[in-house]
Amino acid sequence: MNETTRGPAVADKAATTDEPYLELRGVTVRHGERTVVSGIDLTLRPGEFLALLGPSGCGKSSLLQVLAGLARVAGGSLRLDGADATEGLGQRVRVGYVFQDHRLLPWRTVGQNIEIAMKAAGVPKAEWDERIDRFLSMLRVAEHRTAWPMRLSGGQRQRVSIARALAVDPDIVLMDEPFSGLDEVTARAMRQELTRLHETTAVPTLFVTHSIREALFLADRVVILSQGPARVLKTLDVPLVRPRRHEDSALTRLADEVVADVLREWEPTEGPAS
Ligand SMILES: Nc1ncnc2c1ncn2[C@@H]1O[C@H](COP(=O)(O)OP(=O)(O)OP(=O)(O)O)[C@@H](O)[C@H]1O
Hints:
By secondary structure, this protein is of the alpha/beta class. It has helices at about 10-15, 60-70, 110-120, 130-140, 155-165, 185-200, 210-220, 250-265, and strands at about 20-30, 35-45, 50-55, 75-80, 85, 95-100, 170-175, 205-210, 220-225, 230-235. The strands form two sheets. A six-stranded mixed beta sheet has the order 6-7-8-3-9-10, with helices on both faces. Strands 2-1-4-5 form a four-stranded antiparallel beta sheet, with helices on one face. The structure holds adenosine-5'-triphosphate. It comes from Streptomyces chisholmiae.
């Protein structure tokens, strides 16, 4: 990664402004002839945690892949920090990507997995050692640095994959349902950790989920998507104070309201009329 094409440093990512850091205009994604994402408009502000909430199969992962530059847009445009980024954000800035499954290489140790990501992102080799220690410690898995991924629990592997995403000093983090494979107790602990990390790093984050409660627990704003092909139904400013608690009655009430709101739109047999 060319340093001149990098985005702002971490401290700047927390800047409080309503100017969008990332802007999607009419983004459409197709797999072959099939449209899976249809004309999405959304913005991500500096330092913001934005959840993309939609039913299973609506096209959330496909949209995230386009943002990362792992697939191409079929229509519309992306702008990042005011400049065109339609080819994918990875062309302009460092992207930390956390997949639904951990995607750790089984024949490399935890530390080596993180090294590979930093090498690919152009992080200077002199920083690798300190960064591996720092981010594994932040995610509370430092003692597993020399372990093989297969020796870790699912939750520990996902912690490592988040450490790997943050270790590349990302300008933006994209997360694709990273906790959906974990038991609820572990997932709750991980959501708490993620909130803490985001408060520390303030890296703008797009978090994809089909869980209404998860979106409301984590995000500053939630973009609610329709059944596929995904389009934006509405954007919600989450009115819950921080720190949030999973068992908060206000969170439960809000989740129930959102469920009632999207029920007809998400119901496969009674989907949207248009
Ligand atoms: N590479 C691909 N080629 C063809 N079709 C695909 C491909 N990837 C996904 N699809 C299809 O596109 C649609 C959207 O899939 P996508 O994985 O983006 O949805 P999602 O909202 O992330 O789903 P989930 O919440 O279940 O992970 C699905 O019908 C899926 O079968």
